[in-house]
Input
Amino acid sequence: MPSLQRYSTFGLFASCNSIQPFSDVASFLHYYQQSSIVYILGGGSNSVFTQDFDGTVLVNEIKGISHFDTESHHYLRVGAGENWHDFVTLCMKEKWYGFENLALIPGSVGACPIQNIGAYGREVNALIDKVECVFLETGEQVLLSNKDCQFGYRDSVFKHALANKVLITHVNFKLPKHYELETSYGELASLSDPTPEKIYNKVIEIRKSKLPDPSELGNAGSFFKNPVVSTTVYQAIAQEYDAVPHFVVRENDERTNAGSKLEQIKIPAAWLIDQAGFKGKTLNKVRCHPTQPLVLTNLGGATGGDVITMAKDIIASVQEKFGIQLEPEVRILGSKGLISL
Ligand SMILES: Cc1cc2nc3c(=O)[nH]c(=O)nc-3n(C[C@H](O)[C@H](O)[C@H](O)COP(=O)(O)OP(=O)(O)OC[C@H]3O[C@@H](n4cnc5c(N)ncnc54)[C@H](O)[C@@H]3O)c2cc1C
Output
């Protein structure tokens, strides 16, 4: 039974029936048809295997980057198995700007649309033109437009109607040559005369100082999503606690008319978890990270059971204290596939 430990950045001890890397659609379909239970893996930075997996893990190694430009845009077609940060770094070297805020996010290009990766005020959906997929059951190829992908906060159609139905083979990006740099977020605001390079370097510096490096301390980044609540819920919390950190989120309300915006409030899950007393807390070999409580870490030899217990305790405590239900951002796997907490 091959070990999955090095295929997932959380690094739990877990095995599976077989691990098959593939670099083209034909070999993917061949392996897919041979196995009754399959999990598609990119860099494993958002997947936590809490038990031995009773199936085949197919590791995406579809490579290739092509580029052309027009007067107004750069267009890129990128193999889903390319490493995200290496790709971002290449774009910086080539002066294909736009990805600078998204530097140093682990994982593959193919996974970026799935949870619409985002950091430091940018989400990747702003730069995605089309996503190329193959239906698992039929092998039929399909080209999804940005709109078809139904992007939201850490969300897309790949987590809903197309969940477990497609393999993403390529992501097509469209980068405007003229755009406004995003420096409103935290320490980026203090950059003088910002350039894409300065933002890229600063983002890397901040991330290295705040987030544990998975090659040194197993983790899967943010374990939970930041909850988005109504203004009424936020106001009730703000009355009880001083200086509740928050961000206003405005979304189009399709129930009324296109111009109408609903105002909701995003509260950092890290703050809620800290207030619930979990920052730095350890359960056996799982720790809620002392400088970023949104991240759970594997101190070495953690078990899937410990991870699930700690995550459930956090959810229950935040629910009890604030009446807010935290949702995992990570994909949690049991023996037969994805599980919910
Ligand atoms: C230290 C650290 C920091 C992080 N910071 C951020 C951050 O700032 N912002 C952010 O948004 N995320 C962040 N993440 C989460 C993670 O990096 C992203 O979710 C990333 O996109 C996952 O890529 P992956 O290839 O490793 O995904 P995997 O874990 O391999 O897969 C994730 C999911 O996508 C599916 N999948 C993967 N590839 C394909 C494909 N080609 N076709 C179909 N399905 C596929 C898998 O089945 C799985 O369900 C962080 C993680 C870590 C460890």
Q: What stands out?
A: Residues 253-257 have pLDDT under 50 and may be disordered. Residues 65-176 form a domain with the Uridine Diphospho-n-acetylenolpyruvylglucosamine Reductase; domain 3 fold (CATH 3.30.465.10).
